Amino acid sequence: MFIPSHITGFFKITRHENLLKTGSTGAGITLNRGVSTKLVEGPGNVYFNDEKIDLCPSKDVIHYLGLKNELKHDITYISDFPLGCGMGTSGCCALGAAYELSSTYNFKNMQNDIDRSNLYNKNESNISELIKIAHKAEVRCNTGLGDVIAQHTKGFVIRKSPGFPIGVESVDIKNMDEYNVLVDIFGKKETDTVINDPSWIEKINNTSDELLGKLLKKPTLENFMELSYYFAKNTGLASEEIIEICDDLRFTAGASQAMLGNAIFCICKDEELNDAVSILSNPVVCKIYK
Ligand SMILES: Nc1ncnc2c1ncn2[C@@H]1O[C@H](COP(=O)(O)OP(=O)(O)OP(=O)(O)O)[C@@H](O)[C@H]1O
Ligand SMILES: CC(C)(CO)[C@@H](O)C(=O)[O-]
């Protein structure tokens, strides 16, 4: 199953003792690149682009589904982007695992807070249980707060409330196909080093406080990019190098840092594409995926 990558432009953190009430508000876009998840017979290992890894959110999904002792499959991920670069790759892995395992196994040992009855049937309420499982895994592992909900929603997603119940808007942009999303990855930035640090949380939440309202008043991709750039610069999450490159890309619909990664994303129309590509080092050209 394919799960789209998700780039957050800006976000605000809400923490709660209940993992389902922990999450973020903010905005982002899903991409036509992401992660394909497959199960193959095996002892329960996780493979990411052919490398065996111990991936916390995938292990948590297995645990929440009560499959730890009965798993007879390995989870294999083929990913367009690496982990830890702001593409919500860990969210793709959590959601992909939840969907694939649910179609393969019949759940009898559901944990108390999640209704496992007929989880393998793909009706609305069962899908919502799977999204909860993937979200809980991401939150507990400190790898994401809003990616899973956006990846389920798809498109240009504004998250108006944190966690569950889901409160999102998938904005209808009429000429969405005319826009390209360029992604240029410089290196890793582990999400947990930021979202657990009180001084980062304060900077992030103070800076993003008014941004959601401003985007809801004018929900365009251009405004989204302007607010994302403001967020990246004023939180101090983006390096000077990244801000300089974003400044050079001002002739496009906008450029900013992909949260939370050491990566740039830029939204541009076809006629701006060649010039934008020439400014970046190693851009991957994507489309918004809905
Ligand atoms: N080789 C590896 N083996 C095991 N875990 C890894 C490996 N590489 C990365 N990870 C883990 O993957 C997770 C990446 O999560 P992170 O949330 O930082 O990235 P992401 O979901 O790809 O991007 P973002 O959430 O910033 O959009 C981290 O928990 C990290 O420890
Ligand atoms: C925390 C985060 C920026 C990491 O990708 C994302 O999950 C989000 O927007 O909540």
UniProtKB/TrEMBL annotation:
Broadest EC class assigned to this enzyme: transferase
Gene Ontology MF annotations: ATP binding; kinase activity
Taxonomic superkingdom: Archaea
A biological process from GO: coenzyme A biosynthetic process
Pfam families (UniProt xref): GHMP_kinases_N
Keywords (A to Z) from UniProt: ATP-binding, Coenzyme A biosynthesis, Kinase, Nucleotide-binding, Transferase
Pathway: Cofactor biosynthesis; coenzyme A biosynthesis
UniProt keyword Nucleus present: no
Catalytic activity line of the entry: (R)-pantoate + ATP = (R)-4-phosphopantoate + ADP + H(+)
Entry annotated with the keyword ATP-binding: yes
Domain GHMP kinase N-terminal, first and last residues per copy: 72-151
This enzyme's EC code(s): 2.7.1.169
Family: Belongs to the GHMP kinase family. PoK subfamily.
Biological role stated in the UniProt entry: Phosphorylates (R)-pantoate to form (R)-4-phosphopantoate in the CoA biosynthesis pathway.
The name this protein goes by in its record: Pantoate kinase
Source organism (scientific name): Methanococcus maripaludis (Methanococcus deltae)
